[in-house]
Design brief:
294 residues; alpha/beta; 2-enoyl-CoA Hydratase, Chain A, domain 1; 7-stranded mixed sheet; 4-stranded mixed sheet; 11 helices; 44% helix; globular; disordered N terminus; Enoyl-CoA_hydra_C; Mitochondrial_ECH-domain
Amino acid sequence: MARNLLSAVGHYVGVHKVHRSVLCSLRLCHTDALTLTQQHNGIRRIVLNNPKKRNALSLLMLESLRKSILSEADSEDLRVIVISANGPVFSSGHDLKELTSAQGREHHVQVFNTCSEVMTLIQDIPVPVMAMVNGVATAAGCQLVASCDIVIASEKSTFATPGVNVGLFCSTPAVAIGRTVPRKVALEMLFTGSPISAHDALLHGLVSKVVPENRLEEETLAIAERICWASQPVVALGKATFYSQMAQGRDAAYATASKVMVENLALRDGQEGIRAFIEKREPVWSHTTEKAHD
């Protein structure tokens, strides 16, 4: 298991350190009708860009988001992804017009399968994925938030799974939300459709941090910078291991994690970090999967 996890992150390497200039200087790399993608110093920013439709996760939006995540995902320069949105709504969830009988079962299957692929991709990709939320996130939009590794939200943000109110229970959002917040909180959200505040979302673990709106970008990018500073293969190995052991029972999880820590120590960067600590200096990461020993 450990060697498989290590090999899975082999392509996600590169030398990188983010500077504060990222706050004001972002290079446009790719523009799509529904998503905007910028990358600078290892931070890829993906912006949901359909505010007139409340950034609904239509099939086209989901495909665009998937493309933006996967584009050059093996680049040595990519260290962290930040997903945000234009407009007052982070995402209203699926486009209900796509879910009418007129669209047909085949289209419905495609919508939900694609959505599930995007949500699992966020957790399967070795690069940490953050959400920067400044507004309303409902249904599949709330699912997107719950699927991200780290979520920073503004104080005005709210979160809900209101599908029950329109006759479509939020069963797929429940997969991500039920694995993120306590069961009774998730079920209240799902059964009532009532929104929760950003502070309640923080209390229940749906988001990582809540900040004033005027500090949202700064706080989000500060965390992204810190992630970028660390050894890339170590972060990737750690993320893969975290999700792997979370799906296991306690004893199996400890067995998996113990094996991975031994493999981590065999990495050149694993030994460099220990030497740097002992020598009381800053580590000089190789950002490669090169081994220090067998």
